[in-house]
Structure formats: C-alpha cells, structure tokens
TrEMBL record:
Residues 733-889 form the N-acetyltransferase domain. Its EC number is 2.3.1.-. Keywords: Acyltransferase, ATP-binding, Ligase, Nucleotide-binding, Plasmid, Transferase. InterPro entries: Acyl-CoA_Synth/Transferase, Acyl_CoA_acyltransferase, ATP-grasp, ATP_grasp_subdomain_1, CoA-bd, GNAT_dom, Ligase_CoA_dom, NAD(P)-bd_dom_sf. Pfam families: Acetyltransf_3 (PF13302), ATP-grasp_5 (PF13549), CoA_binding_2 (PF13380), Ligase_CoA_2 (PF19045), Succ_CoA_lig (PF13607). This is Protein lysine acetyltransferase Pat. One of its GO terms (molecular function) is acyltransferase activity, transferring groups other than amino-acyl groups. SUPFAM superfamilies: Acyl-CoA N-acyltransferases (Nat), Glutathione synthetase ATP-binding domain-like, NAD(P)-binding Rossmann-fold domains, Succinyl-CoA synthetase domains. It comes from Cupriavidus neocaledonicus. In the N-terminal section; belongs to the acetate CoA ligase alpha subunit family.
Length: 889
C-alpha cells in the first residue's frame, strides 16, 4: 500500500504523450485531442519519430530526446514496447505513467502475464508508478488534465470516481454531464498491475478537493490492504461502491456448511459494510446514488414524510419504501393539527400528506415548513404531478427559497417537458431531484444505509467488553496434534474441546470404539442419547447416515450402532471408522437450531457466519457473514441481519433466547480464529439457543498450516502481545494499545487536562470531545496507526487513563506522525518518557522510517522529552512551533 509518487499521476506539472498521432479514430489521436482541449497549463511533450509537430506542438523522436523529464507519461503504443518505454522514462526521472495499451491480460505464467511483470520490473528501480494497463486513462479537471481517450471531458467538481470498467466509466461520465455533476478525479484503473483501488483510496482520502468517492470494482486482490484503505477513507468522506458479481456460481465448494453458505459476494457485502462504505447493486442505482451523494446532505434517520399533490404518486412511494425496508414517518397529533390549519378539510390526515391537486404554491411552502419542524420526521420527499393550475417551476422556486437545510428534502417531478424547468431549478440549487418516486425512495434508502454503516464504523462497545481468559495453550495443542498426524479435520471430540477451551458451552460427549462400548457409555450419560459415527473421512455425518437421535435405551443404541456401521461400510467403503460419539439429547421448548462458524475467503481471509442452522441450513439460506474481530455490538449487528435473528427476541408469548450468551459465543469464535491461524473452517451446527442458554451440539473444525505470505486477517485485531506492565518511580503502570471500549476512559482523561495542556497537544481551545471525536481517538486501524495509553492498574481497562501517545504512519510507512500528552495532574512522574520510548520501539519494529511531530516553541517540557529520546529539534521559520524528527532506520 503506497501513495508514493501518486502526486505525479494525479497532479503532474508536465506531461508526455508517447504514441501521439494524427491517425483518425486512433487512441493516440483521441488522447492528443483530449489533452489539448483540456487546457493543461504545464509543458506537454509528444513522442513519435514519424512527426516533427502535432497540433502545433513539437514532437520528439524518442524519450531520450525530450528536453526535460515529464512528471507523467501517457503510453498508447503496442504492448511489446511498454516495458522498454517504462524503463527509459524511469531512467530520465519520470515518476508516473498511464498505460492505455491492451495485451497484458492473462495468468502470471502466460506470455501476457510475463509482459505485465516486465512492466513492473522496469518501473520498480525508479519508484515509477503505473496506472493500468488496459485502462481508459484519467481526468483531473482541477488541474485541467484529460489524459484519457474518453469521449469528452468531465465537469470540475468534488466527486472522485474510480472504476475497473472502462465501459462504465464512459456511461457515468456522459450521465454526469447531463446532470451537471462534476468530478475532482475520474480514474480508469484497468488491470491495476501497480496502482490499485487501495492506493487510489489512500490518495483520495487525503485530497482536499475530493468530498466523496465512487468506486466500481470487479475484484479485490488483497483484502487487508483494501480494508485498511477503505476504512481510512470512509472515516473522512463518503465512499460508495458498486461491486459486480452476485451470482450463486461464485460460492465455492467447501467441506463445511459455513464455507458453502458464506459465498464470495456475501463476504464482499460484509467487508463493505464493516468499512463504513455503501454498496450499490446496479448501474441504474449508481446513478441515483451519485445524485444522492452530490446533493442529499444531513440524513440522520430513516423516517420519511411524503408530500404530494396526488394520492397515487404517494402510494407508489409507499410501496417502494416498504419494498426497501424503509420507515414511513408516523405523524404526531400536534403535527396533524398544524397541517389541518393549512390544508383543505379533505386531506387524508396521514402520511403521505396529500395536499390535493389544486394546491397553490403557498400550500406547498406551509406544509413543507411544518414537516421540517416535526421531530418525528427525518427527511421529506416532495412528489409533484403537473397540473394546469400552478406551473411546476413556480413551486420549485418557492421550495428552493424556503429550504432551510433543517431536514433533507428530495423532489420527484413526474412528467417530461412541463416539469423540466422545475428539475433544473432544483438541480442548480443542489436539491436531489428524481424523475420517479421509486428513484427518490431508493436514493433515500441508500442514504439511510450509508448513515447506518457510518454509525457501525463509529460504534461504542460496552466499557466491559473484554474477553474472559481462554485456554489458548490447550486449543493450540489440539490443533497442532492433528496437523502433526497429517489430518486436516479435527475429530468431533477434539473440535468440542477447542470450543470449550474458549468458554463456549458444549454438550457432554463420550467416545466409544465399538457398539458395546457405546452401550456402556450411553448408560453412564443417561437416556435418551444421540449416537454419531466417528470418522476422519466423513464431514457431514447426517448426509452419510451417521447420526441417530433420541435413542431411549441400550437396545436402541445397539441396533442403531450396528445399522450405522453396515450402511456406511456399504456406501463409503473407503472411509476410516474409529467408532462412535455419544451425547445426551438436549432439547428445550422454545429453542432454535442455529449455525455459527468460520470460513476462509481467498481475498478477505477468515469470516464469521451466523444464521438458521440444522440439517436444512443450506436450503433455507438464512445467514449473514462478518469480518473478525467482533465485539458484542458487531455480533449483535450480525444477528440482526438474519430472519431468524428477529425471532430470537421472542414473539406472541414465546420468550426470547439468552441473547447475551449467544453474543458471547460469537465473540469467542471471533477471538478463536484470531488466536489460532491454523483454523480454516469451523462449523457449530446445530448451536441450540433457548431462554435457558446456548449450547453446541455438534462441531467440526478444518485446519491447515498457514502460508504466512500475506496478512491473514483483513482487519488487524487488538494486539494483546503489546501490553506491558512497567514500574516507574516505585509505582506500577500498564502500557497497552487503545481499545474501542476505552471511550469512557478517554472522556474522563480529557476532563483532567487543563486548557493549556489541551492546546499544547491538540492546538485547539479546550472543549469536551463528542462521541464522533472519541470514536476516532479509540477506534483505530492497528495496521497503520497505533495509540498506547498508560493506566494505573491492570490491562482490563478498569484503571484510570493517565496519558497517551499516538502515531499515524503514512501508507508508505516512510514516516509516522506522533503526538503525546500526559494528564495534567501526572506531570513529572516519567510517564511521558515511558510512552514515547514504547512508541519508538514499536515504530522501529514495524520498519517505519522516521517518527516526526511538532510542538509549540514555549513547550519546554516536550522539547526536553524529545531531546532525551534522541529527536532532532528544528525551528519552523515564521511559525510558533518547532518540528521533531527521529530517524529509525
């Protein structure tokens, strides 16, 4: 992950076009026309030995003949020439190249794949960045750069669009121009041999000219890089994504129900949701989303009021809202009373608010103002069908002038020519405008989903959300023993022992090596019992006829055991049979059979699954997936995304299950998969849940030796190994990474800081941080940021927070910017030195190039601390602060 030299790609000072030509309809001619028409203000160099000049610009015979190295080169020559051209450009100092040429598609071991690798090998020694190959190019209206062969230019604006599809790029560009929507960047990624989605997200997240980001992706190659960049970008600005490929064929064959149910597309859904982005399903919906993102601001709830001059249009909107799972605002009595004062007596006194077809402009204004005042309304949709009484443009002008911004307002102008001026007035005023009620409702629901995802990104876990101790040594030993024995699947008793090591309740299970032994063990457990075959070669025991339930006595066990052996020996003669497992039958009234498990996605790594369990789980397909690590709030969200999850709360006299224990099981499964990298698939099915508790009736775990080539988890979990107990001046402290559950501790910590200390650390006046600010301080991406806090007691988080040091690395890891503060009443106790030394050791272990920071000139204590820790202190000319620098490599 790197943004190195991307400034040369997106904001070049000079550009070269290699392969420029005047041949009609060629890529080289189209790019030349676009480049000239765009009005790029820097030097433009053309390279083609066939011409002396093109479009009045000198044309050079080779790269070596250029008078100066261009920041950016655009290459539209045959694929075979590209590696040599990239090497020549790198040698003269060019920092970025756009490869428009095709011919690089194919696997790594193909001729095309070898050529693609040759391009990267040519660029690497010079740190030259490559966009493409096989891309449309890019447009950066802010610097008047059109380095593409798109049919036309983009309007300047604040949306950035990046796509892996050239065809979709041209469609979005054309549509946006018709709606006067502008772009800060318009980027065709092509095959993403070098510059990929994660790099672009990192760059755009830092770009002040970009207010929102739109993505179209077909595949992600590195889930961890993508998630880290996406989460960082989504915290700073809205990110919308359309992901192609929802087909069922994407689900791979798997040894477990969980693997089959998770599915590739479901994992992408989980990743997008966890990153705080919004997924768009179709190209049509993407256009609506662009309108929503560009114009609909301030959505903070899902309760929609519909204001219309026709009942039928309102019904259409209600249907769309219901189909999308939206909420129609229920109007309070006081709101209805106020509407009664301004609407005809015949209005239906309900939402939708039908103000009747003869409504004058004033009626629209007054009804809209009342809805803006209504606390039970989060947003308003105004639907207008054209009438001969009042021109639509007059209504639009009145709404535009009256719009105060208190509540989001959307408009849907039904019809064509008669409402065109009204649409244009609303568009120019920045009001989201749609042609149908369905489009408007869909955009509103997208805005609501985006807001919910952002809330999930900024959620506050419970303060006591710390896992209880687990017997990791026991669990890891069981897994290691299986792998050393050449097995890829744990036996059922082993799998249950691993679950029990993490505190997950499991049904008592005995192992029997013969039918007679099974009868003996069953008597000890007490009837009725369940009998299951024990075999390393049989994964789904029910399918193989290896499960007998509700056996009431010894005769039943004996008969079932003999029948089971005979059937399996006939149907699966190669299967190794090691005996049986016996367990008491566990059943409760008001219980549910659930499934909880783990699968490993080839892009995003381990994912957790929850849903409706039992033998029919793959047919019912009521499941949801989430990326680990999970806390209780994320586990609750996972449950809520299933149909069975709604039933677990209880209904019509049926009590709800023990929800807290179910949440704990999911959190412990998440912890297990983070702790034990050898687990590749895990099924707990059925997981029986009732008001009396939760218990695992069956379990299977698939294991493998981890490759270690890439980060296994897409989201780095809490780095427990970095916790440290330290004694300083006779006092004991704990220094540990920050947790999301530390929000309350941070709030108390800020209350103990003086205004002077706040200004010295944060360069701002003292005020108590709100939830969003505290969430940003405590919910960090450990892959690119680290915060160590010092507490007065143990690492459970219960001790008082006394200080913090924070370092945020740039995507290149070339340097990390740090800041440090100690509670005002704890100065002089050596805590600052402890914290800064800890951060220096950590940054050095990650290979960070340098720690940098700044402090006020008069902050003598910080200056002394920095010098003691080896930092170089340098005054910044003309400013009231000094820079701090410590080289680490």
């Amino acid at each position: 992950m790197t943004i190195r030299n991307l400034d040369a790609l997106f904001r070049p000072r000079s550009v070269a076009l290699v392969g420029a030509t005047r041949r009609p309809l060629s890529v080289g001619a189209t790019v030349l026309d676009n480049l000239m028409a765009g009005g790029f203000t820097g030097p433009v160099y053309l390279v083609n030995p066939k011409y002396a000049t093109l479009a009045g610009v000198p044309c050079y015979p080779s790269i070596g003949a250029l008078p100066a190295p261009p920041d950016l080169a655009i290459l539209c020559t045959p694929a075979a020439t590209i590696p040599g051209l990239v090497a020549a450009l790198g040698a003269i100092g060019t920092r970025a190249a756009i490869v428009l040429s095709a011919g690089f598609e194919g696997p790594a071991d193909s001729a095309a794949g070898a050529m693609r690798q040759a391009v990267l090998d040519a660029a690497r020694p010079y740190l030259l960045r490559v966009l493409g190959p096989n891309c449309l190019g890019l447009i950066a209206p802010g610097v008047r750069l059109n380095a593409s062969f798109a049919p036309g230019a983009a309007i300047a604006g604040t949306l950035a669009f990046a796509t892996q599809s050239g065809a979709l790029a041209t469609a979005v560009l054309d549509w946006a121009k018709s709606r006067q929507i502008g772009f800060s960047h318009f980027i065709s990624l092509g095959d993403s041999a070098d510059v990929d989605v994660a790099d672009v997200l990192d760059y755009l997240a830092r770009d002040s000219a970009t207010r929102a980001i739109l993505l179209y992706i077909e595949a992600v190659r590195n889930g961890a890089r993508f998630m880290s960049a996406a989460r960082a970008a989504a915290r700073s600005k809205p990110v919308l994504i359309i992901k192609a490929g929802r087909s069922a064929q994407a689900a791979r064959a798997a040894a477990s129900h969980t693997g089959a149910l998770a599915g590739t597309d479901g994992v992408y859904d989980a990743a997008i949701r966890r990153a705080g982005m919004l997924r768009i399903d179709t190209t049509e919906a993407l256009f609506d989303a662009v309108e929503m993102l560009a114009r609909l601001q301030g959505v903070r709830g899902a309760r929609l009021a519909i204001l219309t001059n026709g009942g039928g249009a309102g019904v259409m909107a209600i249907d769309a809202l219901a189909d999308g799972g939206g909420t129609l605002a229920s109007l309070f009595d006081q709101t209805l009373a106020r509407l009664d004062e301004v609407l005809p007596a015949t209005w239906p006194r309900a939402n939708p608010i039908d103000i009747i077809g003869d409504a004058p402009v004033r009626r629209y204004q007054e009804a809209h103002a009342i809805l803006c005042d209504a606390p039970e309304v989060d947003a308003v949709l105004m639907i207008h069908a054209p009438t001969a009484i009042v021109p639509a443009a007059e209504i639009a002008a009145a709404l535009v002038s009256a719009q105060s911004g208190r509540k989001p307002l959307m408009t849907a102008w039904l019809g064509g020519e008669t409402v065109q001026q009204a649409r244009q007035l609303c568009q120019r005023a920045g009001l989201p405008t749609f042609e149908t009620p369905e489009q408007a409702v869909r955009a509103f629901l997208q805005a609501c989903e985006y807001y919910a995802n952002q809330q999930l990104l900024m959620r506050t876990p419970p303060a006591d959300d710390t896992s209880r101790p687990a017997d990791k040594v026991l669990a890891r030993g069981i897994v290691a023993a299986a792998l050393s024995g050449g097995r890829k699947m744990l036996m059922e008793p082993e799998a249950k022992a691993v679950l029990a090591a993490y505190g997950i309740p499991v049904v008592p299970t005995e192992t029997a090596h013969s039918v007679d032994d099974a009868v003996h063990k069953a008597a000890g457990l007490g009837y009725p019992v369940a009998l299951k075959i024990l075999s390393p070669d049989i994964t789904h025991k029910s399918t193989a006829g290896g499960v007998a339930l509700g056996l009431a006595d010894a005769a039943g066990v004996r008969s079932a055991g003999h029948d089971m052996l005979a059937r399996i020996r006939q149907d699966l003669p190669e299967a190794r049979l090691d005996g049986f497992t016996i367990q008491p039958m566990v059943s409760h009234s008001d219980s549910f059979e659930l499934i909880a498990g783990v699968a490993t996605d080839r892009v995003f790594g381990p994912v957790l699954l929850f849903g409706h369990g039992g033998v029919d789980t793959e047919h019912i397909r009521d499941t949801a997936v989430a990326l680990p690590p999970l806390d209780a709030l994320l586990a609750r969200d996972l449950i809520s995304r299933t149909r069975v999850g709604r039933l677990l709360q209880g209904w019509r006299g049926h009590p709800g299950i023990d929800r807290e224990q179910l949440l704990d099981v999911l959190v412990q499964l998440s912890r297990m998969v983070c702790d034990i990298p050898e687990i590749v698939e895990l099924d707990v099915n059925p997981l029986l849940a009732s008001p009396h508790g939760v218990i695992a009736l069956d379990a299977r775990i698939a294991v493998a030796v981890p490759s270690g080539a890439e980060p296994r988890l897409s989201i780095q979990p809490y780095p427990e190994a970095l916790e440290e107990r330290i004694t300083c001046n006779g006092r004991s402290y704990v220094i540990r990474p920050v947790r999301p559950s530390d929000e309350a501790s941070y709030q108390a910590y800020f209350r103990q800081l003086t205004a002077e200390d706040v200004h010295a650390r944060y360069y701002c006046a003292f005020r108590e941080p709100d939830h969003d600010q505290l969430a940003r301080l405590t919910q960090i991406d450990y892959a690119r940021e680290m915060v160590f806090i010092v507490t007065s007691t143990d690492p459970s988080g219960q001790g008082a927070m006394l200080g913090e040091v924070r370092a945020v690395a740039d995507p290149d890891n070339a340097q990390a910017e740090f800041g440090i503060a100690v509670r005002s009443d704890c100065h002089g106790q050596g805590l600052g030195k402890l914290l800064l030394d800890k951060m220096v050791r950590y940054a050095r272990s990650r290979g960070t190039g340098a720690l940098v920071g700044s402090t006020l000139r008069h902050n003598a204590a910080m200056l002394a601390l920095a010098r003691r820790c080896g930092f170089t202190v340098k005054a910044v000319l003309g400013e009231d602060c000094v820079s701090l620098h410590l080289a680490l490599v």
